[in-house]
Specification:
This protein has helices spanning 11-24, 36-44, 73-83, 97-103, 120-131, 142-153, 157-166, 172-179, 183-197, 202-209; strands at residues 2-7, 27-33, 53-58, 88-92, 112-115, 136-137. The chain is α/β, with parallel strands linked by helices. The chain has 2 domains: 2-140, Rossmann fold, CATH 3.40.50.2300; 154-209, Winged helix-like DNA-binding domain superfamily/Winged helix DNA-binding domain (Arc Repressor Mutant, subunit A, Orthogonal Bundle). The protein has a 6-stranded parallel β-sheet with strand order 2-1-3-4-5-6, sandwiched between helices. Helix 7 packs across helix 9.
């Protein structure tokens, strides 16, 4: 059996996906959640057999989320699914290169990424690809994803950590505390990052990463 999990707080969207899949594929919805807190309890009640193929479709912004896309609960939901050996397809309107890069990282572990601006067939294609162990990124999002990855490739591991914390919109003082370094050391890292990426300030850095 092909069984799908839907993690999204938009009821009409979930209903639309379920209806489309029932009419155009062999996939059936076996579990739903609207918030991060509902994911584990939902997984514990799933009626899934060892031979069943299970894939989850996850929105990045779930019920109770803030406005920062890169700190969205959908990433945490994908991590939980990964721990349960359930591959996930991120289905989100937050389709910047930075969001795709984080979603597809080893830490989060998503296997697919599709924009909510795409059509239902694109999502079905992603689900089918992920179900057989492949990865899928919506074709017209690949360039943005690769550009973000190439930007990060220019940075050292520590510089990448600094950028990821900057993206969460916390202060320099909070970043230095999180990394266990002096504020002057952090400011030196940030200056080097700006030089490498051709940015003037924090705002221009975020704009470049979110293109």
């Amino acid at each position: 059996m092909k069984k799908l999990i839907l993690i999204d707080d938009h009821k009409m969207l979930k209903k639309g996906i379920e209806t489309y899949l029932s009419e155009n594929s062999d996939w059936t919805v076996c579990g739903e959640a609207e918030s991060l807190e509902e994911v584990e309890p939902m997984l514990s009640t799933l009626d899934v057999l060892p031979d069943d193929s299970v894939v989850a479709v996850v929105d990045l912004q779930l019920k109770g989320d803030g406005k920062n896309a890169l700190a969205s609960n959908g990433f945490e939901a994908a991590k939980i699914l990964l721990n349960h050996n359930i591959p996930s397809v991120i289905f989100s309107s937050n389709d910047t290169g930075a969001c795709i890069e984080k979603a597809m990282s080893a830490e989060v572990g998503a296997k697919g990424f599709v924009s909510k601006c795409s059509d239902e067939q694109m999502l079905l294609d992603a689900i089918n690809m992920v179900a057989v162990g492949k990865t899928f990124i919506q074709p017209d999002l690949v360039a943005s994803f690769l550009e973000t990855r190439s930007l990060f490739a220019m940075l050292t591991k520590r510089e990448q950590e600094v950028v990821k914390l900057i993206e969460t919109d916390i202060t320099n003082e909070e970043i230095s505390e999180s990394l266990g370094i002096k504020i002057t050391t952090l400011e030196n890292y940030i200056s080097i990052i700006y030089d490498k990426l051709g940015c003037r300030d924090r705002a221009s850095l975020l704009e470049k990463l979110h293109q």
